[in-house]
Amino acid sequence: MATLDNKSATAEISELISSTSISKVEDVLKVRSVVLTGNGSYDLIKVIEWPLMAKCAEHEVRVAVEFCGVNFADVYHMKGNVLQWPVPYVLGLESAGKVTQVGSAVRNLHVGDRVVCYCPNEAGMFRESVVVPSTHCFVIPGDICTKVACTLIANYLSAYFAFFSFGNLRSGQTVLIHSAAGGVGWAATQLAASVVGNVRVLGTASENKHHDIVTNGVTEAFTYENYSTHILDAEVDIVIDNIGGDNVKKSVDLLKPFGRVILTGVNCVVQEDESKVAKAFESIASSVVPMQELVMGNKSVCGLHLGTLLRDNPKTFHTAVEQIFSLCQQGLIEPRIHAVFPLSKASEAIKLLAERKNIGKVLLKVE
Amino acid sequence: MATLDNKSATAEISELISSTSISKVEDVLKVRSVVLTGNGSYDLIKVIEWPLMAKCAEHEVRVAVEFCGVNFADVYHMKGNVLQWPVPYVLGLESAGKVTQVGSAVRNLHVGDRVVCYCPNEAGMFRESVVVPSTHCFVIPGDICTKVACTLIANYLSAYFAFFSFGNLRSGQTVLIHSAAGGVGWAATQLAASVVGNVRVLGTASENKHHDIVTNGVTEAFTYENYSTHILDAEVDIVIDNIGGDNVKKSVDLLKPFGRVILTGVNCVVQEDESKVAKAFESIASSVVPMQELVMGNKSVCGLHLGTLLRDNPKTFHTAVEQIFSLCQQGLIEPRIHAVFPLSKASEAIKLLAERKNIGKVLLKVE
């Protein structure tokens, strides 16, 4: 794992940019970007010029970015919990802006369209300008502003698929939402409380966030320390579990018959101690799924990953995005933006999420 | 584990009956019953007189049995895969007949009612007369005969909860049903093909049963040996898996995004070699659930157990039984009875299931 110090990182990056395999200088732009140059320290996130192809391929579009959405996945990447790509690479899974160039085979997007770009399998979205496969772009309806649209994909889609594709959430049921003040938790609370309605929403968060999550629709707020002593076994229909690890067993205990735990993350791997960086995938693989309890209790465990869904089932994904845009237009969901940082302060934004200080979405803005 | 030989078993049972803790002789009847006197051999299944309380308790009813339904659970009990109760005990989870006595607190059942009795948590149903909690009895509608009613509970309810409570089965989907010629498989095929309709039904069975399962609604028949080479990964919405063990991983591989494996049994524990009797619960506990595949593939694993459901959620269970009776009345499901054995040949009936020679339900008849 590369853990370059500041100076050598800068030198190495300059070299890497100059030695790019793209031979013709006119084919390459240099675009201000948030580059991860090593794992485990916020100092290794650099905001620098980084190469980008000047001409997009036939199925791609170029987008001038206005806002970027910060996700917990960015924390995993920074810490080294997920080692998907060799450093250095450009961070960020989502951004939003205006289409400025369209590949020759793209029919559904046009220059001037406002779009959200979501690239969970490629990253590279935290920069002034991005080139994205057209299938990963979603045209923003006229009455939703670009900033709000940039909060609607990763978080609301996770909540949407959890409750509607897996959970079959219905009025009269009880749900438990962990990290109810986080991006996914905030979205999930609204889907349960406003879209379905008549749902008992149990939510966990630090105590200082309880007032806010209750305002958002949580009916009973708990801390991570006390929730399992207050909620009874066989009380919950759906648990959205972004903690993973040992918590999966706890979540299963709380389920009613035909209840479901939907695993959306493994935040338990984010440790304070950098010397013991846990790997997210290894932690998922070794999560304790109490199979006998599933069988004897008529329970289920579901895994959710937006990246593979968008890659393998783009139509399902696009239909869900349209639903979310429509719910936003109807005023049934109202994203909360915790803070907007300039692109140059991306590392501060990621730190804020890692320290779980946010309530709702954190954005970056291209100055 | 008791493995008495024939003679000593008989002697011990006589002693046990005579030394019953019920002191007043007039309180005890002796009723012809199928008694398991030890594990691992069909010889240890004895059809003998066995004590039964003469007067049922306030929430119980007595039923004069006409038919009993044989289930794979009886095989587990005989083999010793499930050691729920110390031997000797009366085998059997379901029977059907006429109510002959009603406890003082029972309001919903009357002498003369025809009922199916289902006691997955107590067994004791293979006998001429049974005493059953009233919550475990289901009144048979007038136009369904007692024999047919005795095929409708364990098998059809398993299929019903798998597809409708867990699976959310819809027209246009693809399901894989293991043991499509067995009791649950036969029922599940009908629910998919006749009740939902426009469902692609993949089914496994021995080759000599393929004609029959196709007649029942299976659209593509496979053997256990070749199914995984013919069915593609990401092709199936719901797998009903009664094999368990290593097969769970195979089943998960075949799922589409948002697909579900529903674990209804662990038939893999039924070994030919009696010296290596695997325990069903241990095998469930150690089943390989590929958690990372669940997450990366947007998949889920569900456990189904009718016993705990009936105990903890009788209302849910009773509602489902009414649905099944109604589907039968409408002619949308048509149980197939493979064979009817006299009570005295219970061990032959259980052996037939263990050797997987049946197509559809096997019943016992009180002579």
TrEMBL record, chains A, B:
Keywords annotated in UniProt: Oxidoreductase
Keyword Transferase recorded: no
Annotated ranges, domain Enoyl reductase (ER): 43-364
A molecular function GO annotation: oxidoreductase activity
Superkingdom of origin organism: Eukaryota
Keyword Chaperone attributed: no
Protein name: Enoyl reductase (ER) domain-containing protein
Natural source organism: Homalodisca liturata
